[in-house]
């Protein structure tokens, strides 16, 4: 084989490798970011804001969450467990009318316990539990974040720095969406219909579901 042919083959191989590398980078770059944005939804935007608009840093954080918690398999609840959690949530909502701060604190503890029962990290590891929940329930996890923040604002801050009643009400309403996601039967639980799902066992849009499940207005606090 002549020297010219060898050089030509080397050039061709090098060109093929360069093209393959470019295509791989393009596929891994935008598609990876787009996939994270689709998966995390509002959590993606929060991560970007937390990193002052640095999307690469936000995507590294979210990709790390997926790597740590993406393989987690949620444990289905037994029917008796589900009923107990639902009864406790109903009692928590009713308690809000007379003791809003205590009700929000109970919602925070209840979500931590429910997530633990479904196989997420223990509630004593709040940040890790929240990260795992964000991977599997990204569109509703902020409700848990809000009730936890409201619950601990008065404990960690000054005596008069606690959240107002309206903020507590909003946090509890939003947390209801995550509660319903975690407590409802999964696809492998028998798929039985329950309140908060449609006839196929799917969850309706959050606004409609929250209004149907619980509307705690300022004028009619016990309205359902």
TrEMBL record:
<feature type="compositionally biased region" description="Basic residues">
    <location>
        <begin position="208"/>
        <end position="224"/>
    </location>
</feature>
<protein>
    <recommendedName>
        <fullName>Secreted protein</fullName>
    </recommendedName>
</protein>
<feature type="region of interest" description="Disordered">
    <location>
        <begin position="183"/>
        <end position="224"/>
    </location>
</feature>
<keyword id="KW-0812">Transmembrane</keyword>
<keyword id="KW-1133">Transmembrane helix</keyword>
<feature type="transmembrane region" description="Helical">
    <location>
        <begin position="6"/>
        <end position="25"/>
    </location>
</feature>
<keyword id="KW-0472">Membrane</keyword>
